[in-house]
Amino acid sequence: MSTFESRTQVKESHSVTSIIVFGASGDLAHKKTFPALFELFKANLLPKNTLIYGYARSVMERDVFVKKATSYIKATEELVAKFMESVVYISGSYDKEADFVRLREIIDAGEKKVHLSLVKTDDAEQKENRLRIYYMALPPSVFVSVSENIKKSVYDANAENHLVVEKPFGFDQESSRVLNSQISKDWSEAEIFRTDHYLGKEMVKNIMVLRFANMFYEAVWDNKHISNVQITFREPFGTYGRGGYFDQFGIIRDVMQNHLIQVLSILAMEPPASLNAEDVRDRKTEVLKSISPITLEDTLLGQYTKSEDGKELGYLDDPTVSKDSNTPTFAEHVVRIDNDRWRGVPWILKAAKAVDVAKVVIRIQFKDIESSVFPKLARNELVIEISPTNKIYLKTIVKEPGLSSRLTLSDLNLSYSAVFDKTLIPDAYASLLLDVIGTDHSNFVRADELDEAWRIFTPLLKRIENEKIKPLPYAYGSRGPEGESDFHIRFGGYKPTKLDYKWFSTTTGPVTKPSVPKL
Ligand code: BG6
């Protein structure tokens, strides 16, 4: 199945679907997995006979579990209660066989009950065609023991079994290979769904459509027309509360090696032969293979300190972070793709925690025009905003309206909120869960793709750690460390020329921005 098949109706291809959420008492399950399941339930997109199980170590009364599992769901009490009717909580260990055997018995009993009712309704066709989804919302330390135990005691060879694994998948190329080989001795690649939630985001899914369903973008999508590409992730909050996890991983493993490199691979890949998952993933992997490992010389690292007003704590003020930690909370790299399409184009990737704004954005800057008619002006730039809003705009030179013959820079602007119903945009996790139910791997990371992503970053990560490279300080709430503002210029990015920039707000009409567009 491919990612662009209709998702407005569930494919009722299984007689019963059992979804088991491991780590059901944890943050990820409460914040993402259960709300995503609820979103599908609300939209009538869960298959007809779906049974949901929460599994975790904590011993909890049902009402405590219900309260936690629904704490991030926004809907009427009635609807939430209706959803929770099909959710059962089971407490058990992550390493004792007996607990997994007990889980298997509960799942078997649930499926049996559904089948008995199907026989009663004489739905013979749908008999015994079961899907089991094992969703591991778990810390990586228990991935292997849980997946082994599932395989040994819960896996059903007569059913379709899907194992959903959350990041982080390993710590570097070697550990990721070890993890993969441990998991793949029990599970086939077709059964594994490695999640990168950025692949479920609306605007990330839109990149392929934009590129391959529109004549004009693909026509200029290369080094003859594009000067540089910038993929930027900025978050206005720090890591307080999750410093224990973050300090071991750092921003490169947390955001860069997965989310941003995935976005890059879709932007840069060659057109796939079809929209089938393997064709798409082949193309993504191929482009990653053309990237040499990133060097320290092509990198800027930072770590946030207290905010200037002293109100926000610095990274090292977190008691769960070691006092002499060199873990970067800011990283900017220049990535070069050595193939015919992209040779010579710098791809500038930036990920930053505790900076001035919340924004994830792609900027594709075109080359200067060589025109004998008009002077060299500002460049065209295609901007795809992934969050906090969904928008696409193309900075375009136009004639200023009126009798003047001045030129100005404005936007061809598609703001999703102005054009589409906001409620149509699903949460990334809901979209990915629907893919797991529909056995669509296009938006999941294949083993060889993951290996390539680690290959690109592992030498740099090792060097940072072995040579104890100190990141540059930057104040909480600032734009980043010294050198941030000219990093992309240094590496071949765009230095804007002076030009008025007219920006059309969808609500208020034209607004003249005070000066040239900021990068
Ligand atoms: C997660 C990272 O994978 O992605 C977090 O671990 C980060 O550090 C988050 O904040 C960002 O996701 P989103 O969907 O809020 O952009």
From TrEMBL:
Domain Glucose-6-phosphate dehydrogenase C-terminal: 208-487
Catalytic activity from the UniProt record: D-glucose 6-phosphate + NADP(+) = 6-phospho-D-glucono-1,5-lactone + NADPH + H(+)
Pathway: Carbohydrate degradation; pentose phosphate pathway; D-ribulose 5-phosphate from D-glucose 6-phosphate (oxidative stage): step 1/3
Top-rank taxon, per record: Eukaryota
Keywords: Carbohydrate metabolism, Glucose metabolism, NADP, Oxidoreductase
GO molecular function, one term: glucose-6-phosphate dehydrogenase activity
Pfam families tied to this protein: G6PD_C (PF02781), G6PD_N (PF00479)
InterPro entries, sorted: G6P_DH, G6P_DH_AS, G6P_DH_C, G6P_DH_NAD-bd, NAD(P)-bd_dom_sf
GO CC aspect terms: cytosol
SUPFAM superfamilies listed in its UniProt record: Glyceraldehyde-3-phosphate dehydrogenase-like, C-terminal domain, NAD(P)-binding Rossmann-fold domains
Biological processes per GO annotation: glucose metabolic process; pentose-phosphate shunt, oxidative branch
Domain Glucose-6-phosphate dehydrogenase NAD-binding, chain residue ranges per copy: 20-206
Enzyme kind, highest EC tier: oxidoreductase
Keyword Magnesium appears in the UniProt entry: no
Functional summary from the UniProt entry: Catalyzes the rate-limiting step of the oxidative pentose-phosphate pathway, which represents a route for the dissimilation of carbohydrates besides glycolysis.
HAMAP family: G6PD
Recorded family membership: Belongs to the glucose-6-phosphate dehydrogenase family.
Protein name listed in UniProt: Glucose-6-phosphate 1-dehydrogenase
Organism for this UniProt entry: Smittium culicis
